[in-house]
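Example 3.2
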Amino acid sequence: MGATELLFDLTLILLLIGLALGAMHSARLYTGVVLFIVFGLMLALTWARLGAMDLALAEAAIGAGLIGVMLLAALAHAPPEQRIKQHPLTHLTSLLLGALVLMLLLRGVLPLTSGTQPLPGLVADQLDATGVSSQVTAVLLNYRSWDTLLELVVLLLALLGLRQLHGVRQVRPQAWPLLSAWSRILAPIAVLLAGYLLWRGSHAPGGAFQAGALLAAGAGVLRLAGLLPALSWRLLGMRVLVLMGVGVFISVAAATTWLGQGWLIYPEEWNTALIILIEIAATLSIAASLTLLVVGEGDEVQQ
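Structure, written as C-alpha cells:
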C-alpha cells in the first residue's frame, strides 16, 4: 500500500468516526439527519474501497438515500425542535461502548487475516453447480438462501409495522417545475439501470436488492413530482408486488422440499431458472416495499 492510499484510508476512517459521533450527539435533529446521510455516503465509499461493490451499492441506495429521505420526511412532520442538552456522562458512555464494540470486532476479524480461509475455495469449486457465475449470488441464493428469505420477511414486517404509525393522509406540496422535468428523464434511467443490475447480479456485483432500491428511487422521484398517483397498501397491485418476493421464495422452497432433495436445494438442471425467478420477484417486491415505506400513503389505517 502506497503513502497516498494509506493517507486516503486514514482520512476515510477519521471521517466515518467524526460523522458518526456528530450524528449521534448533534444538538439539532436536522443536523444529525444530514450528518447521518453523509455518513451513509462515506460508508458506501468505504465498502467500495474494500472491494465489496454489492454492499456499496446497497448502502448508497438504501442506507444513505431512501432512509435519509424517510428521516427528512419524518422530521418535516415533527414539532419545532429545541436544542438538546446532553450530559457529559452521555458522551463518555457512548465512547466506552464504541471502544467495547471495536474490541469485539477486532477480536473476531483479526484471526481471519492470518492463514488461508477455506470457504472462498469451496465456493469457487462448487460454483459451476450453482447456476450462476457470481460467488456473491451463489452464496446468497444457494448456500445461505435462508438469510435472503428472512431479509425479505424483515422488510415485509417493517412495512406492515410502519403502516400502523400512519393514520393521516400526507399533504404534499406542489412539485417544483424543475423536479417534474428532470423526473421524466431520471425515472426511465433508473428502470434501465435496475434492469442492468438485476442481470449483472448473476455474474458480477449487483442483484435484487440493488435493482429494487433503484426502482424504488425512480418511483419515489415520480411520486414527489406528482407524476404518479397516490400509492397505498389498499391497492391490490401494490399488495401483490410486496408479497411477491416472500411468496415466490417460499413456493420455490416448498417445491424443492416436495420434489427435490430438501428445503431450497435446487435441482442442478433448474438452478439458473429458479434463481432468476427468485431474483425478479425479489426485485419487484423490494421496489414496492421501499416505495411504500418512503412515499406511501397512510390513509388505510383505521383510527
